[in-house]
């Protein structure tokens, strides 16, 4: 070991000794509020004080960033990024999965040079020096080879977990949630797990740099990877304010599997899903033609398609498929995308069907192209909606806040990144994605937007003042709609889900980490506009 790793080992020894002296009932006693805004337990404070005392007594040339005390500037170039006890709830409950986690770097994850992790209960030690590999109790650690048929995943399933976490747990062979991020990521570095998926729908529950600084270097030195949920290599500054969701993995291909970026199944070939709108005329005939054209392929039916064909069906959200085929109009497509993240191709048996790719006359040709893989997958961003801490369904097209009473006007304030943009009296406000610009927003005079443009459109509905016009804002903005009057409103998402909104409440809209994926046969956006909107109307 280098001198710095020896120092970190000695600090870990001191923490283990100090924590061992705390009486069991006292471990979880809350004694103050930490710098991260959460209560500090006795075990956390004892561990942190032990580290700080060691640094002072031994003149260790390090600043400190710690979960409890915050940043301590000792005037040095390097900083010790410390989580004195990662897995406090485990420690209090007597579960032997909690660590002292330490990393040394200058200002962010990417420049961490030393890492040391100690399981306080078992005594197992893991360490790494940048460029020199990662070790567990002296044994070199390596990530393992990916086998999608035998995936073992660590998944955050706490009370802030995004619904996609539970969906992923159903797709993999085995999963665990241990409540100690540093150890869960270390298991990937050690080759015991394929990945660690952290996705919290509540920002306050997302990961901080102190939680993973040590295991970050362990994973990287063991040959692993860590990405944010947009697919970029993850990096975080040394502070307690920044939080992030991420995927730590042994193989970059796991990112594509977890985020469903490719049509690849766990079996020998793609699995098709069929969703049908039972109210469409001739829907049985269309469904039978799809099944006939996909003869020999594995097909899973939603409940409506199953009833129509006399076959077993399931809820759309429970359909693990590679390609989803819908029969209906745009509403059927939107309902499917709200409940499943598989790529969707629509057979237009409805009206305009702007989002649908295949006409009923071309069902056989369309299914043949799917089987041959002659298609592309077009990814579109989705829209998240929340109010008073409650998250709602993600939208592909738009979310609408409107009056809950017929012919009753409401007053709204609209904010962009917390700055007042407009105040209007109207029937409602639409917040539309670029995909949704050809839908409800278009009918109210908003511009058509190429889906490659990352923008929201804010559209007043039947505004009292003629000067109330649509706004186009960047998709990385936060849009807030305040229902000013003490009168109720409704939040309607993609025309599929409704939620009551109390008078005076605010609804926030932000770009979602989720993507809507459409299977296309290379018809460009402008041709679609001409064929389905201009020439058809």
From TrEMBL:
GO annotations of cellular component type: cytoplasm
Keywords attached to this entry: ATP-binding, Cytoplasm, Kinase, Magnesium, Metal-binding, NAD, NADP, Nucleotide-binding, Transferase
Amino acids binding Mg(2+): 67, 83, 85-86, 211
Cofactor (UniProt): Mg(2+); a divalent metal cation
EC number, UniProt record: 2.7.1.23
Principal subcellular localization: cytoplasm
List of residues binding NAD(+): 330-331, 335, 397-398, 408, 425, 427, 438-443, 462, 496
GO biological process, one term: phosphatidylinositol phosphate biosynthetic process
Compartments in which it is found: Cytoplasm
PROSITE patterns: IMP_2
InterPro entries cross-referenced by the UniProt entry: ATP-NAD_kinase_N, ATP-NAD_kinase_PpnK-typ_C, Inositol_monophosphatase-like, Inositol_monophosphatase_CS, NAD/diacylglycerol_kinase_sf, NADK
A Pfam family recorded for this sequence: Inositol_P
Enzyme active site: 330 (proton acceptor)
GO molecular-function terms, A-Z: ATP binding; metal ion binding; NAD+ kinase activity
Catalytic activity: NAD(+) + ATP = ADP + NADP(+) + H(+)
Superkingdom in the source lineage: Archaea
Function: Involved in the regulation of the intracellular balance of NAD and NADP, and is a key enzyme in the biosynthesis of NADP. Catalyzes specifically the phosphorylation on 2'-hydroxyl of the adenosine moiety of NAD to yield NADP.
Family, as annotated: Belongs to the NAD kinase family.
Protein name, entry field: NAD kinase
Organism this protein belongs to: Methanomethylophilus alvi (strain Mx1201)
């Amino acid at each position: 070991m280098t001198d710095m790793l020896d120092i970190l080992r000695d600090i870990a020894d001191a923490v283990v000794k100090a924590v061992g002296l705390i009486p069991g009932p006292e471990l979880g006693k809350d004694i103050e509020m930490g710098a991260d805004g959460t209560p500090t337990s006795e075990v956390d404070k004892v561990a942190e004080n032990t580290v700080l005392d060691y640094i002072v007594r031994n003149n260790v040339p390090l600043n400190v960033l710690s979960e409890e005390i915050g940043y301590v500037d000792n005037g040095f170039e390097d900083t010790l990024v410390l989580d004195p006890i990662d897995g406090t709830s485990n420690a209090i409950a007597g579960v032997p999965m909690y660590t002292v986690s330490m990393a040394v770097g200058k200002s962010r994850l990417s420049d961490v040079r030393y890492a040391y992790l100690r399981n306080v209960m078992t005594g197992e030690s893991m360490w790494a020096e940048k460029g020199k590999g990662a070790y567990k109790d002296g044994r070199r650690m390596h990530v393992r080879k990916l086998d999608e048929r035998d995936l073992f995943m660590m998944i955050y399933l706490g009370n802030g977990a995004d619904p996609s976490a539970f969906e992923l747990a159903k797709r993999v062979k085995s999963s665990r949630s241990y409540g100690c991020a540093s150890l869960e990521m270390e298991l990937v570095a050690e080759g015991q797990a394929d990945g660690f998926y952290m996705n919290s729908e509540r920002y306050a529950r997302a990961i901080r740099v102190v939680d993973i600084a040590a295991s970050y270097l362990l994973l990287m030195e063991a040959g692993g990877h860590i990405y944010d949920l947009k697919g970029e290599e993850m990096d975080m500054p040394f502070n307690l304010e920044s939080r992030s969701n991420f995927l730590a993995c042994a193989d970059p291909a796991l990112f594509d599997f977890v985020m469903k970026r490719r049509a690849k199944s766990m079996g020998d070939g793609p699995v098709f899903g069929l969703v049908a709108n039972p109210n469409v005329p001739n829907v049985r005939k269309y469904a039978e033609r799809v099944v006939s054209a996909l003869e020999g392929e594995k097909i899973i039916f939603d409940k409506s398609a199953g009833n129509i064909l006399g076959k077993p069906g399931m809820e759309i959200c429970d359909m693990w498929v590679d390609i989803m085929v819908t029969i209906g109009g745009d509403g059927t497509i939107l309902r499917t995308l709200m409940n499943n993240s598989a790529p969707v191709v629509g057979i237009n048996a409805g009206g305009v069907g702007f989002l649908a790719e295949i006409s009923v006359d071309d069902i056989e040709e369309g299914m043949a192209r799917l089987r041959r893989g002659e298609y592309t997958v077009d990814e579109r961003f989705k829209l998240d909606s929340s109010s008073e801490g409650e998250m709602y369904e993600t939208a592909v097209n738009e979310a609408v806040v409107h009056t809950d009473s017929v012919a009753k006007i409401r007053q709204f304030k609209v904010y962009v990144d917390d700055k007042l943009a407009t105040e209007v009296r109207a029937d409602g406000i639409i917040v539309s994605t670029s995909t949704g610009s050809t839908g409800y927003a278009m009918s109210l005079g908003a511009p058509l937007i190429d889906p490659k443009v990352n923008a929201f459109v804010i559209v007043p509905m039947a505004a009292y003042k003629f000067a109330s016009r649509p706004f186009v804002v960047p998709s990385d903005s936060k849009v807030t709609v305040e229902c000013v009057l003490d009168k109720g409103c409704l939040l309607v998402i993609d025309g599929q889900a409704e939620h009551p909104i109390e008078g005076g409440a605010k609804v926030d809209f932000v770009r979602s980490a989720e993507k809507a994926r459409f299977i296309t046969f290379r018809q460009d956006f402008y041709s679609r506009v001409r064929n389905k909107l201009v020439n058809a109307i």
